[in-house]
């Protein structure tokens, strides 16, 4: 029987701020069959092209991005908050559902023309993913797909990614 991924996401009300309902993916991460199912579904949704690099967004995006990179025989690139990467970086400011922040990527992480898969755990307002797309393209990468474990459709974050192929495994409307 196939794992119901949505049943393994728990809501945490008023986290990290009052009025926000946090989608906690840790119950899903505790279930090895669910993780395998998620990775298989992510791969099924990918275009039929060679992916050179998988970009994961700090920090929950790292969990599946590294698994996807290994399965796709691709490199993994972490996108992090300021001051967390030890080498020369590009940075991009962005808005998120409860404030503003900045993301960074190593300047030498992507070679010009490489096909890149962007992965994150949740697509909410789209600001984080859109900022990461700018970082990938600044480095010369071609974004072939953006995938997310969870999408909060009511926040319409997909609108900020309308120029990209986007899929999500679990949707909340």
How would you portray this structure in words?
This protein is of the alpha/beta class and 173 residues long. It has a single domain (49-172), classed as 3-Layer(aba) Sandwich (Rossmann fold). The chain has 4 helices and 9 strands. The strands form 3 sheets. A 5-stranded parallel β-sheet has the order 4-3-7-8-9, sandwiched between helices. Strands 1-2 form a two-stranded antiparallel sheet.
Give the gist of this structure.
With 173 residues, the protein is an alpha/beta fold. It is 24% helix and 35% strand.
Defining key terms:
173 residues; alpha/beta; Rossmann fold; two-stranded antiparallel ribbon; globular
Quickly name the level 1 CATH class: Alpha Beta
Give, in order, the helices and strands: EEHHEHEEEEHEE
Question: Tell me about the biggest sheet?
Answer: 5 strands, parallel
What's the CATH topology label?
A: Rossmann fold
**Helical proportion, percent range:** 10-25%
> What are the segments in which pLDDT stays under 50 over at least 5 consecutive residues?
none
Global Rg: 15 Å
Shape: globular
Question: What is the number of helices?
Answer: 4
Number of DSSP E strands: 9
Proportion of residues in β-strands: 35-45%
Query: At CATH's second level, what is the architecture?
Result: 3-Layer(aba) Sandwich
If strands are numbered along the chain, what order do they take across the biggest sheet? 4-3-7-8-9
The averaged pLDDT comes out at: 95
The end-to-end distance, rounded to whole angstroms, is 26 Å
